Amino acid sequence: MNDLILVERFKGGDRKAFDELVRKYQKEIYFLAYRMVLNKEDAADIVQETFVQAFRKIHQFRFSSGFKTWLYRIAINKCKNLLRKLKQHREHVHVEDYVLTDPNDSQLDVLLKNESVALISATIEKLPKKQKAILVLRTYQGLSYEEIAEIVGGSVGSARVNFHHAIENIKRLIGKHPDAGKQDGEPGSV
């Protein structure tokens, strides 16, 4: 069912309409939050906080953007707030959550894939919050630059530039990693 119809029904007193919105977007918001904070418990908390805030503030929803965009904006802000609180670095990377391995892969292949994913995840963590949010929204959530601009605020051009800067920063940071660019047989290579 159309989000706007569900929002109207909820505003009219149909509480089940909000339950439908939760069911429709719960997983998407979880994956968005998880990609931002890289912690399952924190991501689950952000999902709950996002829907609680949406429930409380839905009367402020003006239909000028899509409900999904409005909901993503709430979730991104919750993620940013949490990341701000967690100023001290803590290990978030759970490589086993990222890597899909082929049953025919050798243990060495699995180890190399895990190392690559851990390096990229750690590098994404070092990005400025806005670049990280845009990278996650574009790469993992598959949103258009127009949708991203609505969610994070700013123009479509700004969203494109921030995405480009995020990619360039990842390349630069990975290039600084001690094992980046090593050839087989060099110290530190496998």
Compact summary:
The chain has 190 residues and is an all-alpha fold. The chain has a domain at 1-91: Orthogonal Bundle (Rna Polymerase Sigma Factor, Chain: A).
Task: Give a verbal description of the structure.
This protein has a domain at 1-91: RNA polymerase sigma factor, region 2, helix turn helix motif (Rna Polymerase Sigma Factor, Chain: A), CATH 1.10.1740. It contains eight helices and no strands. It has helices at residues 3-11, 15-37, 40-57, 67-85, 107-125, 129-140, 145-152, 156-176. Helix 2 (15-37) packs across helix 4 (67-85) and helix 5 (107-125) crosses helix 8 (156-176). It is globular and about 55 Å long.
Unreliable stretches covering 5 or more consecutive residues: 88-101, 181-190
CATH architecture identity of one domain: Orthogonal Bundle
How many strands?
Answer: 0
Average pLDDT taken over every residue: 81
Bin the helical content.
55-70%
Structural class: mainly alpha
What attributes does this structure have?
190 residues, mainly alpha, Rna Polymerase Sigma Factor, Chain: A, 68% helix
